[in-house]
Write a structure and sequence with these properties.
The protein is built from 8 helices and 2 strands; from the N terminus they run αααββααααα.
C-alpha cells in the first residue's frame, strides 16, 4: 500500500482533481474509521478514487466526476461494526445513501456522482447502476476490499507459520 500511496500522491493531475477533498475536515474524519481490517475509510476511498480515475481516463469516461465520487463513496463516518441506533437497516444496504447525504454537504454532486455513491454496492443492493463510471466503482470497490483483506489475512497466516516453525 505504501508504494501505491507514493504513486497516488505523485500523480499531480489526480491530486489536483481531489485536492479540496483531501483537505476537507469531514473527509479527513474518515481516517478515524476502519474499513477493511486495518485500512481506514480514507485510505480505502483514496485507493478506489485513484483506480477509478485511471480506468475512466483510459476509457475516455468522466474521470473527474469518477475520482471525486469515489473519494467520498464511503463517507458514512461511523464504525460500521457497531450497531447504530438511528440507522435503519444493515450497513451494506444503507451506507451508500448516508455517504451521498454527507457528500452533498461538502461538494456539488452531479448525476454521475450521485449514481456512483448511492449504487456502489451493486449487485448487493438492488438499484442497478445507470452509468459506466458507477459499474467501474462497484468493481474497483470490490477489488480494493479484497486486496485490503488479502494482505491482512496473508500477514496473519505468515505469522502463524513462523510461530509454528519457531516451535519445531
Amino acid at each position: 500500500m505504501e508504494d501505491l500511496l507514493k504513486k497516488i500522491y505523485n500523480d499531480e493531475e489526480f491530486i489536483k482533481i481531489i485536492d479540496d477533498l483531501l483537505h476537507n475536515e469531514t473527509v479527513l474524519k474518515m481516517k478515524n474509521f476502519r474499513q477493511h481490517y486495518e485500512t481506514s475509510c480514507f485510505d480505502h476511498c483514496l485507493e478506489a478514487s485513484y483506480f477509478c480515475y485511471k480506468i475512466c481516463k483510459k476509457h475516455k469516461l468522466d474521470y473527474v466526476s469518477s475520482a471525486r465520487a469515489a473519494m467520498v463513496h464511503d463517507l458514512f463516518l461511523y464504525n460500521w461494526r457497531e450497531r447504530q441506533p438511528d440507522r435503519k437497516g444493515l450497513h451494506a444496504f444503507t451506507h451508500g445513501k448516508t455517504s451521498y447525504e454527507n457528500a452533498c454537504k461538502i461538494m456539488e454532486i452531479n448525476d454521475i456522482q450521485k449514481d456512483m455513491i448511492i449504487k456502489h454496492m451493486w449487485p448487493l443492493t438492488i438499484a442497478i447502476p445507470r452509468y459506466k463510471e458507477t459499474f467501474i466503482l462497484t468493481l474497483v470497490d470490490k477489488y480494493c476490499a479484497l486486496s485490503e483483506s488479502y494482505y491482512e489475512i496473508k500477514s496473519k497466516h505468515s505469522k502463524k507459520v513462523q510461530a509454528k516453525k519457531a516451535l519445531n
